[in-house]
Amino acid sequence: MPHDHNGPQSASATPLELLRTPPPKERADAARNRAAILDAAASLFAEHGVDAVSMDQVAAAAGVGKGTLFRRFGDKAGLAASLLDARERVLQEAVLHGPPPLGPGAPPADRLAAFADAYLDYLLKHLPLVRMSETAAPGARYRIGAYRFWHRHVTLLLGGIPDPEHTAHALLAPLAAEHVTALLPELGEERVRAGVARLWRDAGAR
């Protein structure tokens, strides 16, 4: 998952298509190692939970050296981000080319509501992985390439209001994995979804 150290505002003038998470380009042997590592990590994370699995365990299960694992992914947060890449690309493709209302062809307010709902589907399905990728370091969430894509998409849909870039950040803030993780035990999924839907519908009604 690409990172941009210029911060979220750097996406403001970039066409949405160019902000997509690109698939990795690599040699065949490197691709095999990558696939083995990601398969092993996905299995271990599903069985034991993200926090309980060590990089040593992932390397052993994948049949690669720990040095190879660290050179390739950096740390467990990098590994989590790589596991999310394919899932993010599916949602990005739906936003760009899928049927309305998530894809083009529906009014902006309907597309905003559809995106919030689709993003919550993705987030809740992969919450521990997203949380790890977003909290690896201070500000990590805002340097993730996918965040720049989501922010630009929402900004474009809010184009008729004052300062749509700020409003897009404000709408995405309640979708941070750390925030959702904290709310779920107290409020439950149904109330979290309903609250997000209200916020995004109100923004679209402007």
Summarize the structure.
The protein has 206 residues and is mainly alpha-helical. Helices cover 68% and strands 0% of the residues.
Structure description:
This protein is mainly alpha-helical. Helices cover 68% and strands 0% of the residues. The chain contains 10 helices and no strands. The protein has helices at residues 28-48, 55-62, 66-73, 76-97, 108-125, 127-134, 140-143, 145-157, 164-172, 177-205. The radius of gyration is 18 Å and the shape is globular. The protein starts with 27 loop residues before the first helix and ends with a helix.
Q: State the total count of DSSP E strands.
A: 0
Shape, please?
A: globular
Instruction: Enumerate how many helices there are, as a single number.
Output: 10
Proportion of helical residues:
55-70%
Terminal Cα separation, in Å?
33 Å
Structure class = mainly alpha
Which regions contain 5 or more consecutive residues with pLDDT less than 50? 1-11
* Computed Rg: 18 Å
What does the largest sheet look like? none
Q: Return the average pLDDT rounded to an integer.
A: 87
| H/E topology pattern | HHHHHHHHHH
Strand content: under 5%
